[in-house]
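Posted in: Structural Biology > Protein-Ligand Complexes

Title: Requesting predicted complex, guanosine-5'-monophosphate in pocket

I'd be grateful if someone could produce the 3D structure tokens for the following input. Sequence and ligand are given below.
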Amino acid sequence: MSKGSLFVISAPSGTGKTTILKKIMAEVERLSFSVSHTTRQPRKDERDGVDYHFIDKSAFVGMQEQGDFLEWAEVHGNFYGTSQAEVEKQLAAGIDVILDIDVQGAQQVRDIAVDAVTVFIAPPSWEEQKKRLSSRGSDSAETIELRLINGRREMEDARLYQYLIINDTVDETADILRAIILARRSATRRSADGLALQIPS
Ligand code: 5GP
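-- Reply #1 --
Done. Output follows.
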């Protein structure tokens, strides 16, 4: 059995990425969403262990010190990290894994997993992004402002990703993302010596 593939998805806050990923997760088989650890407070519709593992700063530092994170970063004033053990377990079982992580985390993954597929999802416009962030209703004006400023900086990293999708509509973006995932499953693997065929067992 061949190992699963790693898909790194990044998007500025307020792009609509969570809605797209929920749709993809419901539609594509053999796909797992890596539930990150974070020190951020849960939003009212978020569930511990489903959206995130919500932990405090000292627990996060403990995990860092144990080397439990595949990658981690401070984003918008909170800490976020991906559990290495969880991801490796899925990949070893032949299941593809989606990492919903920021641009700093994506760079760390690129450094250690060169064959990861990287996708950047951008908001259709600045106004739309601001509207989506405000409509969430749970973030303070200060938090929204910080996320918008950071989002502008994150956009500069879009060129480092293999794919860029402008999120005009959820359906269209989900279609493109699904196509990327399915295409990867049909890709032949190339080694330094040429084509290394991987026939599924
Ligand atoms: P939010 O607080 O809106 O859920 O997420 C804020 C940002 O943190 C998003 O860009 C999201 O992709 C990123 N993020 C979520 N989990 C992780 C993680 O495990 N590692 C990194 N580096 N970023 C993460």
